[in-house]
Amino acid sequence: MTGVGKRIGYAAALPVVLLTIWWVSTENSENFYVPPLRTILRTFGEVWTLDKLRIDVWPSLWRLAAGYAIAVVVGVALGVLVGTSRWVRALLEPVLEFFRAIPPPVLVPVIMLFAGIDHTMKIVVIAVGSVWPILLNTVEGVRAVDEVLSDTCRSYGLTGFARLRHLVLRAASPQIVAGMRQALSIGIILMVISEMTAASNGLGYTIVEFQRSFAIPEMWSGILLLGLLGFLLSLLFRIVENRALAWYHGLRRAQRSS
């Protein structure tokens, strides 16, 4: 078996085991709140049609994409600024630590006062909660730039934007991507939370509506869909990461084999 085949096998093994345990343990379940998995899977196919996906899943995904994109731009830009300037770091660090300590769901009522209850509020909630891991990882990555490389760039006359592009961002990119990976998980959670408050569509709204109407198999099917979306987004992120950081992973492999 090739290395890729082994990785796929390892990644699929645990979900298969968990689904098997779920299937067997609920096969004869008569609990109203814990229906058999076969019932949930049958309901999944009946509920999540293409039209239902367009109405409730697509809005969630584009809100997530918009909020996540804002978090990436703001987090990287502010992180580079804080990481490269001592006086900016001294000025902003106490404020950033204060806001970082506030759980994003707590800010939902406050954001609703300023942004209303439409799409803007949900995008802002996702952006505000997702920006912190990107920002903090960017700061640490920028501050950890090798001094020898920095002196080399200075010797060759690389300054300003050229130095930022070819040295700072490239050297900090592994940590920036690590922050982006964490932010994606946070963004998915906040996407659901924001849609549970004053929403008329979205995956979080639909799951809550199923729960309120005691449509329990439908509710479980929504939770299952949410987990599947999270897995697919994580897989997509990993593919993009492997392509963007191919030089870094190649360097790590060379260091391990030497």
**What CATH architecture label applies?**
Orthogonal Bundle
Overall geometry: globular
CATH C-level label: Mainly Alpha
Strand content: under 5%
Please provide a written account of the structure.
The chain has helices at 3-26, 37-47, 50-84, 86-100, 108-115, 119-143, 147-155, 160-195, 203-212, 216-244, 246-257. With 258 residues, the protein is mostly helical. The protein has one domain (36-246): MetI-like (MetI-like fold). The protein is globular.
Summarize the helices and strands and which ones pair or pack.
Blueprint (H helix, E strand, L loop, with lengths): L2 H24 L10 H11 L2 H35 L1 H15 L7 H8 L3 H25 L3 H9 L4 H36 L7 H10 L3 H29 L1 H12 L1
Helix pairs in contact: 2-10, 3-4, 3-6, 3-8, 3-9, 5-6, 6-8, 8-10, 9-10
Question: What attributes characterize this protein structure?
Answer:
258 residues; mainly alpha
Structure described in brief:
The protein is mainly alpha-helical.
